[in-house]
Design a protein that fits this description.
- By secondary structure, the chain is α/β, with parallel strands linked by helices.
- It has eleven helices and eleven strands.
- The strands form two sheets. It has a seven-stranded mixed sheet, with helices on both faces. Strands 7-8-6-9 form a four-stranded parallel sheet, with helices on both faces.
- Strand 4, helix 4 and strand 5 form a beta-alpha-beta unit.
- It is elongated.
- The chain binds adenosine-5'-diphosphate and 6-O-phosphono-beta-D-fructofuranose (F6P).
Length: 320
């Protein structure tokens, strides 16, 4: 019987458990033996691997995080580490692997696949939405909804005191969490790495928005776009306006996955397992224009930067 394994790697994201459950249940439905690996590539190197059945993934669809744990694994960046990982897979006669993770995890998957001929299917699990080959990654929708909850709370208190608020959100080098949460939360400014900001422009706008009768303003800053303390200090210096800053932090990484992330997880996992059944070359699963896609890893990882300029313009226009 064909044997495959599944692991979660890199930063956890809501929807990873839903993808794990779908991978295990669909693999069993297709008649495969399926193994879970603990703590991503660390477990693969250390041989922390166990057989899974339908009950192994009971009652996890609604949970954030990942029940098989995750890690960042420097040893897997080295050839020697990947050799140990391959030895673990060989010991169990495993020929196919599902990696649920982000960009870094997929570079690791690519190396393992190229060096040892393991067929690896990548399911994008990261709140950052920073993979260019897919419109959405698992966890992004949930993280934006969590951010919205924070924005709603901030709006209540900031509005009551006529204050300006600056909320820093995650995303590494990608501004999607800030952009989508900014539009959905009615923020006045969205500062993202894709568009260099002009502090004078922001200060001018803040002043003119006050003249137009706005008594409270919300700025959403993507972590990769600038430093919240510097920005708020500059605003204070140039306009006299005090800015209340908040960092949302790891709160946006947890929480029960949204409907969108759970359904996407199911669709992607089914495609990944189907491809392993067909002995396909290694691929990264994604979604473009609501179609599930499966590009060869090197093609997927080399797609040009995806940025929706129109959406950015809308964010600004609607804040006037
Ligand atoms: P994410 O997958 O969320 O982007 P990381 O960037 O931390 O998270 O990557 C997760 C793990 O993938 C790393 O800890 C490492 O084990 C592995 N990895 C990342 N980049 C590479 C690479 N270039 N070659 C081999 N393994 C890599
Ligand atoms: O990649 C997900 C992410 O949450 C990023 O948005 C953030 O920059 C980073 O991981 C934080 O990493 P850690 O959890 O290791 O502090």
């Amino acid at each position: 019987m064909k044997k495959i394994a599944v692991l979660t790697s890199g930063g956890d994201a809501p929807g990873m458990n839903a993808a794990l459950r779908a991978t295990v249940r669909y693999a069993l439905y297709k008649g495969l033996d399926i193994y879970g690996v603990e703590r991503g590539y660390t477990g693969l190197i250390n041989g922390d691997i166990f057989r899974m059945n339908s009950r192994s993934v009971s009652d996890i669809i609604h949970r954030g995080g990942t029940v098989i744990k995750t890690s960042r694994c420097p040893a897997f960046m080295e050839k020697e580490g990947r050799k140990h990982a391959f030895e673990t897979l060989s010991a169990y006669d495993i020929t196919g692997l599902v990696v649920i993770g982000g960009d870094g995890s997929f570079h690791g998957a690519q190396a393992l696949s190229e060096e040892y001929g393991i067929s690896v299917m990548g399911i994008p699990g990261t709140i950052d939405n920073d993979l260019n080959y897919t419109d959405y990654t698992l966890g992004f929708d949930t993280a934006v909804n969590t951010t919205l909850w924070a924005i709603n709370s901030l709006r209540d208190t900031m509005g009551s005191h006529d204050r300006v608020s600056l909320l820093e959100v995650m995303g590494r080098g990608c501004g999607d969490i800030a952009l989508y949460a900014g539009i959905a939360g009615g923020a006045e400014y969205v500062i993202i790495p894709e568009v260099p900001y002009d502090i004078d422009e922001i200060c001018k706008d803040l002043k003119s928005s006050q003249k137009r009768g706005k008594t409270s303003n919300m700025i959403i800053l993507a972590e990769g776009a600038g430093n919240k303390d510097e920005i708020s200090a500059q605003i204070k210096e140039k306009t006299g306006i005090s800015v209340k800053t908040t960092t949302l932090g790891h709160i946006q990484r947890g929480g029960s996955p949204s409907m969108f992330d759970r359904v996407l997880a199911a669709r992607m996992a089914v495609r990944a397992v189907d491809l392993l059944c067909e002995d396909s070359e290694s691929r990264l699963i994604g979604i473009r224009n609501n179609e599930i896609t499966a590009d060869p890893i090197d093609v997927a990882l080399n797609m040009p930067k995806r940025f929706d300029e129109k959406l950015y313009d809308i964010a600004h226009i609607l804040s006037l």
